[in-house]
Protein: Glycoside hydrolase family 88 protein
Amino acid sequence: MWQAAIEDAMKKTKRNGEKHGLQFPHIRRQAEGKCYEWGPSTDWIEGFYTGMMWLSYEYSGDTAFRDMAQAQVKDYRRRLDEDVALDHHDIGFLYSPSALAAWMIEGDETAKQLALDAADKLMMRWRPEGEYIQAWGPKGDEKNGGRIIIDCLMNIPLLYWASEQMGDQRYREVAVKHADKSRRYLVRGDDSSYHTFYFEPSTGIPIGGGTHQGYHDGSTWTRGQAWGIYGFALSYRYTGDKQYLETSRRLARYFVERFPEDDVVYWDFNVEVNADTLRDSSASAIAACGMLELLEHLAEDDEDRAYFQDAVERSMRSLVTNYSTMGEPDAEGLIDHGSYHIRGDLGPDDYMIWGDYYYMEALMRLEKGVPGYWYERKEAKTGVK
Structure:
């Protein structure tokens, strides 16, 4: 099953690259039909598309994927140099699956420098007064100046990596402090999570939790919970701090315990479920990757190993069987019924490029043991493994 799904995903990824060149997929507001809106790199999501090119190259050895990925990486340099729409924390989402991947796979020194420069850009969002990375907007922003969001746990691995590469502990210290702040304030006592949390910007005094894309301020947005599962597992990989591993485990149990009948989650765990309630297939794909990362760190005799392995396989089988576009050869996306921002009527039920990426990453992990691009692999850089 996994191999057939990967082959289908690569065909669609290659066709999109050949058809759209250096245009990138963007999420549309609700419209007729299912497709991406293609345009220049101006959002937080483009890195996932480039990451799909690199995954396809690693799996197939087809140099067409490498050539498309390399051309895109050059565009990320342009974007960083021109500071195009980078006033946010999602630098890791942009530059890890693109530039860092190019360094890991090809040993591309230019790409390595680009990833390091991107880490410097992310460091500019560190707010020492409150000891957190500000999610959105400039320093002093009236609405967002004291705001963190759970998604950032997937951006700070770029800082851990930069610290290792440069031997500079500042990057690691920022990542750890932000992870600690997230663990304390974004994770609730019942192992659910806030999407966002606010602090008084000048002092760092906590104000309270909230949401941006969830059902309500006290609800648990499923994609946010998935970011937490994966992000804390990655912080454990980099630091060895068992608190992060246990937090990832707790978030994962909460997620799995709330699987619906077909093992692919709705867009929020607290939304009223009826025939019209929308799913978020992308949340399930992210959570599958997060649990696969978590499994790498659990002892062989850990009682949770079988539990999480079964959950991943159930969820991924459902994504392939019930949500993938394998029976739609002309589809641009890999999995349907993802959601972006339902209350904002932005991509409420469509393809999500991050959903496509994490779906492919999970398949690659399951089929070949090849992870994504959130930490540097230790083997020599000699091209395709």
In short: Residues 365 and 371 are 5 Å apart (CA to CA). The chain has a mean pLDDT of 96. The radius of gyration is 19 Å. Strands lie at 24-26, 37-39, 126-127, 132-133, 147-149, 196-199, 206-210.
